[in-house]
């Protein structure tokens, strides 16, 4: 105890903290404050697993501003309290030396309170350098279990007690995790992964139905394709169209659910990418859902109306939405599926890269169209011819008059943009 | 304030003048809240 305090009962210590126990009576009100130690101390810690629960042990650095040097403003000692037995143990450091905030780490997850280690960063004036000690929590005054002699003084040490960037503060991070959510993060991650995989698979099934429609439906620039688009939709019939939209919509929902589950994991929170990423997801999910729900309930009936104008208008609008949704991804291709790629949003020549997957897809498409033609389906054959011609890199008759000649262009240049 | 409470559930308790930067821990026990704190009688005066 401060000698002045012993002489004068009314003495008040300035700028020195002491450990007190406050008992707040919730029924009667009032706080009962009991000093637990005459010695000063600050930056108290408990076993992090005991936060919010009854604890027995506490670890606390000492503050004594006048007792420290200019280089080292931290305490000269730290102490461990056994609050059940009412005892304390001290570890002291030599003149001019000091220590930072002690941090308790349990030996293993299920270890008892105080069964573990205390990590302390201290200052060795003789070397003008820091020392990192790992001490046995049950023998804090004894020899350290391990000692790291750091070649230089860690600049944060004088301020370490002030809650700067220290290993101790990194260990505090789990405090922000809701207490009801312990251990749930791994399942959340697995759930979001499973949902996204299921969503992508479902969406792919929807795409398989949708792929049979003319890809450049409804584009104003391709008015010549409109009758073909309408005929395509009519031939496809309401059931495959609804299936395409239904599967795609269900896939979208699964993907969205996956994203929401992913949002529960906050590991990437506060990074610069977070707002950008969420904006991308929101834009594409909204666009995809609008399109796919319309596709499921609207397009098939519209295609069967006497006036094809409505169908073409809706399809054109939805295609535009898709193009808009694809803009953030820097390509004419949605991240979810390839069904949004269109000739109207073709990338520049330099961006057309032959990829094995596209090559395989093109080959599949060609085989399919050949088989169709062999079956001799009347209108389909005409359509198939147009597409096949494009796949082979032969100019479309409609386009003969515009653009530069493309006779020698590699087939992939167009095929890459077919589904 | 109770863990599941809101603004309206905040209660105030008076104690002698002092200052506390850091609590060690807190828990409830037998209708009481037990708080271990590093308490300053006076600070920066």
Please characterize this protein's 3D structure.
The complex is a heterodimer of chains A (419) and B (45). Chain A has helices at 3-7, 157-160, 167-171, 185-210, 226-236, 238-263, 273-303, 309-326, 356-375, 378-391, 412-415; strands at 17-25, 31-40, 42-45, 57-61, 77-82, 87-92, 98-99, 103-106, 116-124, 129-136, 146-149. The longest helix of chain A is centred in the C-terminal third of the chain and has 31 residues, at 273-303. Helices cover 39% and strands 16% of the residues of chain A. In chain A, α7 packs antiparallel against α8 (309-326). Chain A has 419 residues and is α+β, with helices and mostly antiparallel strands. In chain A, the strands form three sheets. In chain A, strands 7, 8, 9, 10 and 11 form a five-stranded antiparallel beta sheet that branches. Chain A has a four-stranded antiparallel beta sheet with strand order 3-4-5-6, with no helix packed on it. By secondary structure, chain B is an all-beta fold. Chain B has strands at residues 19-29, 32-40. Chain B has a two-stranded antiparallel ribbon with strand order 1-2. Chain B is extended and about 40 Å long. Chain B starts with 18 loop residues before the first strand and ends in a 5-residue tail after the last strand. The interface between A and B is medium-sized, with 37 and 30 residues.
